[in-house]
């Protein structure tokens, strides 16, 4: 359900009207998809329930013209729980509008469905997020390390990773 703070955004400007329209469209598409959201600095952020990410991304790409996936990255909120966020930055070139999606994942088993079926460009972004944060992407076509050597132990952008690295 659309969070109260996103209903009829009471902010002046075209950006707020467009953001409210996108949030309402996602809510109409799947009322259970949006867990939270905010409109800040003229940019909309929607927190999406992890099981809904692929369907919401498909809807945003094909029905709302967010044809460009700018990036996929992770955030480690250690020691908070849920520990991880997967963050997707989308861009509608036709409307020159940007949208940020976030999914929160538990620290014990950070797993989410891959969006490579929606945007092929997600491939390397998801591999980088897997490599550096240890977040697994189900149904990814080639989920393996991309920056660290194949035998590397751990994920260097996790907050509990040793600051000095591993001692040899």
Describe this structure in words.
The chain has about 170 residues and is an alpha/beta fold. The chain has a single domain (about 5-140), classed as 2-Layer Sandwich (Beta Polymerase, domain 2), CATH 3.30.460.80. It contains 3 helices and 7 strands; from the N terminus they run αββαββββαβ. It has a 5-stranded mixed β-sheet. A two-stranded parallel ribbon has the order 6-7. The radius of gyration is 17 Å and the shape is globular. The mean pLDDT is about 90.
Describe the structure concisely:
By secondary structure, this protein is of the alpha/beta class.
C-alpha Rg, in Å? 17 Å
Question: Helix-strand pattern, N to C?
Answer: HEEHEEEEHE
Q: Tell me, briefly, the overall form.
A: globular
Mean pLDDT: 92
Name of the CATH superfamily = NADH:ubiquinone oxidoreductase Nqo5 subunit
Major β-sheet, in short? Answer: 5 strands, mixed
CATH third-level topology: Beta Polymerase, domain 2
Gross CATH architecture: 2-Layer Sandwich
| Largest sheet strand order | 1-2-5-4-3
Tally of individual domains? 1
Strand percentage: 25-35%
Summary tags:
five-stranded mixed sheet; two-stranded parallel sheet; single chain; alpha/beta; 7 strands; globular; 168 residues
List the helices and strands and how they pair.
Layout: H1 14-29, E1 34-40, E2 43-48, H2 53-62, E3 68-76, E4 84-92, E5 97-105, E6 111-113, H3 122-133, E7 136-138
Parallel strand pairs: 2-5, 6-7
Antiparallel strand pairs: 1-2, 3-4, 4-5
């Amino acid at each position: 359900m659309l969070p109260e703070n996103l209903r009829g955004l009471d902010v002046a400007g075209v950006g707020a009207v467009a953001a409210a329209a996108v949030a309402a469209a996602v809510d109409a598409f799947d009322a259970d998809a949006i867990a939270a959201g905010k409109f800040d600095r003229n940019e909309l952020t929607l927190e999406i329930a992890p099981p809904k990410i692929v369907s919401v991304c498909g809807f945003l790409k094909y029905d709302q013209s967010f044809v460009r996936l700018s990036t996929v990255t992770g955030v480690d909120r250690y020691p908070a729980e849920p520990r991880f966020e997967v963050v997707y930055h989308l861009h509608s070139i036709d409307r020159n509008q940007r949208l940020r999606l976030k999914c929160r994942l538990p620290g014990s088993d950070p797993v989410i469905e891959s969006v490579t079926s929606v945007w092929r460009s997600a491939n390397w972004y998801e591999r980088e997020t897997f490599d550096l944060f240890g977040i697994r992407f189900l149904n990814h076509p080639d989920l393996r390390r991309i920056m660290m050597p194949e035998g590397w132990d751990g994920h260097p952008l996790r907050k509990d990773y040793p600051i000095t690295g591993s001692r040899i």
